[in-house]
Amino acid sequence: MGWLVPGQTVPELDRALQHLPEGLQQRPLASRYGWHVVSIDQRREGRALPFDQVIDRVRHSLREQATRRALRHYLLALESDIGVEGIVLDDDAGGSLMQ
């Protein structure tokens, strides 16, 4: 997969990866997307970058978060308005965007 940074994978996988030693892991890791065979080849300490070097990534990340939250609330409103059953959404997009 190349280099991963915290927040690049789903939270449950991120948490597990932070605590694993280098090398091929003895057991696969579970996430909401299935099982993952993990081999950690190397770890590097991160460093803070100047804002002007990361502004595009920050803008993209914030836009992505807002879009996901808005879509989640839209789907929940549709569920409520037309009585659709069986929709299960993650609860990680708290806060009300729609009245």
Structure description:
It is a single chain. This protein has 2 helices and 4 strands; from the N terminus they run αββββα. The protein has helices at 11-18, 51-82; strands spanning 23-24, 29-31, 34-36, 39-40. The chain has a two-stranded antiparallel sheet. Strands 2-3 form a two-stranded antiparallel ribbon. β2 (29-31) and β3 (34-36) form a beta hairpin. The protein is flat. Residues 1-42 form the PpiC domain. It catalyses: [protein]-peptidylproline (omega=180) = [protein]-peptidylproline (omega=0). InterPro entries: PPIase_dom_sf, PPIase_PpiC, PrsA_foldase. Belongs to the PpiC/parvulin rotamase family.
Number of helices: 2
**Measured on Cα atoms, how large is the radius of gyration?**
18 Å
Annotation, overall tally of beta strands: 4
Query: Which structural class do the helices and strands define?
Result: alpha+beta
Order of helices and strands: HEEEEH
Cα(first) to Cα(last) distance is 41 Å
Mean pLDDT: 84
| Poorly predicted parts | none
Strand line-up across the major sheet: 1-4
As for the number of domains, it is 2
The shape is flat
Q: Biggest sheet, open or closed, and with what strands and sense?
A: 2 strands, antiparallel
Helix fraction by DSSP (H/I, runs of at least 4):
40-55%
SS strand fraction: 5-15%
Family: Belongs to the PpiC/parvulin rotamase family.
Domain PpiC: 1-42
EC number: 5.2.1.8
Organism: Vreelandella olivaria
Task: Record keyword descriptors for this entry.
single chain; 99 residues; alpha+beta; 2 domains; two-stranded antiparallel ribbon; 4 strands; 40% helix; 10% strand
